[in-house]
Specification:
single chain; 327 residues; alpha/beta; 8-stranded mixed sheet; 9 helices; 25% helix
Amino acid sequence: MLAALLPALLVPALAAPPVELMGSPAEGAVVLPLWEGVTTADGSIPGGLADDADAPTLAIHTPQTPNGTAVIVCPGGGYVTLATGHEGKDVAAWLNERGVTAAVLRYRVKKQVPGPLHPAPLLDVQRGIRLMRKHAREYGVDPQKVGVLGFSAGGHLAASAATLHTDAARELNPLATADPLADTVSARPDFAVMIYPRITYIQPEGLREIPRLAGNGGNLFGGEATEEQLAGLSLQTQVTAETPPCFLVATNGDAGVPAENSVLFWRACRAANVPAELHVFDQGGHGWGMGGPASEARGNPGPDWTGLCADWMTGRGLLAGAADGAE
């Protein structure tokens, strides 16, 4: 499998159009260059970068009274753009209201890396987790309470962070040690929240056919992605006992990324004895963010999952006033 992934690693620094961002960081957010001070032999960053102006960043939104929990937020966008508004800044505001430090990740997408994109986004989310732990004291964060939350392709990235941090997964990420922090700071999130996530690029047995199966797998590997590559990043196959507790949301009405994706991941967690909670709502399509009135106002109504997620986080000791001793 390593040989199949190598073309994605050999990417020069070339010019490319900017990535459209759907929402800028909130006023007062601290924007950290994700790979500041880290360069490769060709003057780029690990995984390649097409345009320095589009360098990946981590926008840290700090609550008035931090409760010690931090979340790396991964907006969706099919690995071609980033919905940094309703799946980024708005989520950060919701987390801040609950005392959670939120860091919206502007990870690399297809326009920013010539050739196959993988493993650049994975490197970015792992770097984001490590930076949050490195700066934990500065932002009032407990380094053992750093999680990820992602939507759609960002949900795939959150699931990647939750599963591809192990030594056994190194074959899927040959640049895993390219981050200077890799030897001293863990990239394993302490929990993961996935909202209408893309999980699989292969058709699993025993479930109805999943339409548009290749999905954004082609954006990760290019138009000639192999079955081996698609299977490797079908993340239900990567869940182990080392996967952190997970919370998943999907809808029956999502035709683009069907609920079967979340079901597959939940089943894999159950088989590995990983705590996981799954909510499948009947109504709702795709890309509705936090749902509720705000999603209705945008013309894309979806269920409001935030209360359920807050209850789950409280039960795990991740919110202010939460119960102690959660697993």
